[in-house]
Amino acid sequence: MVALGETEQPRLGGISIAWARAGHATADFIYTGQVYKAPRHRGRNPGMNEAPRIRYTDGEYLLANPTWHEEDSPWKAKQIMAMAHRNDLQPRSICEVGCGAGGILEALHTLMPENISFVGYDISPQACAKAKEKEIERLTFHERDLLEDDDFYDLLLIIDVLEHIEDYFGFLRQIRPRSDYKIFNACF
Ligand SMILES: C[S@@+](CC[C@H](N)C(=O)[O-])C[C@H]1O[C@@H](n2cnc3c(N)ncnc32)[C@H](O)[C@@H]1O
Hints:
Elements: E1 15-20, E2 25-27, H1 60-64, H2 73-86, E3 93-97, H3 103-111, E4 117-121, H4 125-132, E5 139-142, E6 153-159, H5 168-175, E7 179-186
C-alpha cells in the first residue's frame, strides 16, 4: 500500500475513484496531497478541454509530449495496484482507455498475477505504435476507440484521459456498461 506523502511523484494531482457497476461508488483519493498547480494561461488554453481529437492523431501531441508521459507510468501503476488492493478488486481482464504509449499496462502486467489479461485502446497512431512494441502474451493494444468494439472487461482504467475529451459526460455514459469496475484519474 502506498500512503499519501510517500510517493516519489510530486507533479501529478487529481482525484481517483473506484466505482462499482451496482452503483455503489467508492471514493478513493490516491493522488491527493500532491496538488498539481497548472500553469496560468493568458486567455485561452488550447491544450486541455478545448483540445480537438485530431491533436492526438496528427502528431501534434507527440511533438509536445515526446515521451507520451511514459516516465510516470510505473508510479501510476503502483497507485492503481494500491487502489485495487484497498477496494478488494480481483479483475481477470483489465482495459485501459486512452492507454497512450502503454507504459501503465506494461507495468501492471509485470506486477499483477499471471491470470490477468491486459488490453489498451488509444485513438493515436503515434501512441499505439509505441505501445505495440510492448505487446506480449496477455498484453495487447488497439489503435481505435473502445466504443467501436463491444467487449466487456472486469476493470476499466481511465487515467489522465477525461480532461482530454470534450464531451466527457457523453464518454462516461458510453463506457458505463463496459466493465464491472472503473478507476479514474483526472487532472482538471
Ligand atoms: C495524457 S495521455 C494519458 C495516457 C496514459 N493513460 C497515461 O496516463 O500515461 C491522454 C491520452 O488520451 C488519448 N485520448 C484522447 N482522446 C481520446 C478518446 N476519445 N478516446 C481514447 N483515447 C483518447 C490520447 O491519445 C492520449 O494518449
